[in-house]
Amino acid sequence: MPVNSAENVSVSDSFFEVEALMEKMRQLQECRDEEEASQEEMASRFEIEKRESMFVFSSDDEEVTPARAVSRHFEDTSYGYKDFSRHGMHVPTFRVQDYCWEDHGYSLVNRLYPDVGQLIDEKFHIAYNLTYNTMAMHKDVDTSMLRRAIWNYIHCMFGIRYDDYDYGEINQLLDRSFKVYIKTVVCTPEKVTKRMYDSFWRQFKHSEKVHVNLLLIEARMQAELLYALRAITRYMT
């Protein structure tokens, strides 16, 4: 009985998590319709979110797991993820309005490697727009707000800012356990554990979580391409 009772409490808690997330999405949509934050306020919220993302640790909060022998694939065995912005360092913000995939990166890739830009662009669009329009037990849900928050949070981790996005939405929609999972998948995927996978969005279907994982890796790939292609553009001009 105690075991069953604990399971029932867990199911009940995860059910209310879904309802709370749906309510936050509804409230944020109403706030969007009523008023819009100033550019100064949105810039401030981006800087806050970027700083906070440095203190979201991945596997440090987890139990020690057996090391996975990925180092054999590296010529440089010291290779590994380092936080984009170290504590106390000021890193210039990468503004998408100045250099973005759609207007700059896409055309440069096609110029250097014909047709590949189109293939990569289709891959980004499929991952970004992939949805069943469901959230756990709810159907016919517009998940675009949630998908955009996830995509923009990953870019924020890498110092990339969208001027037209209110980064205050991220803390409303993404809880800490989900942020830990995101940072681990994006930065140190070899450290992902089943416990971490199970700890976020507990009422969501596995297929919905697979959608999330595709979104994470494609957002990271685009962030990396933006920095690389901008550097190439500067060199060529």
Automatic annotation (TrEMBL):
<dbReference type="Pfam" id="PF04636">
    <property type="entry name" value="PA26"/>
</dbReference>
<dbReference type="GO" id="GO:1901031">
    <property type="term" value="P:regulation of response to reactive oxygen species"/>
</dbReference>
<dbReference type="InterPro" id="IPR006730">
    <property type="entry name" value="Sestrin"/>
</dbReference>
<protein>
    <submittedName>
        <fullName>Sestrin-1</fullName>
    </submittedName>
</protein>
<dbReference type="GO" id="GO:0005634">
    <property type="term" value="C:nucleus"/>
</dbReference>
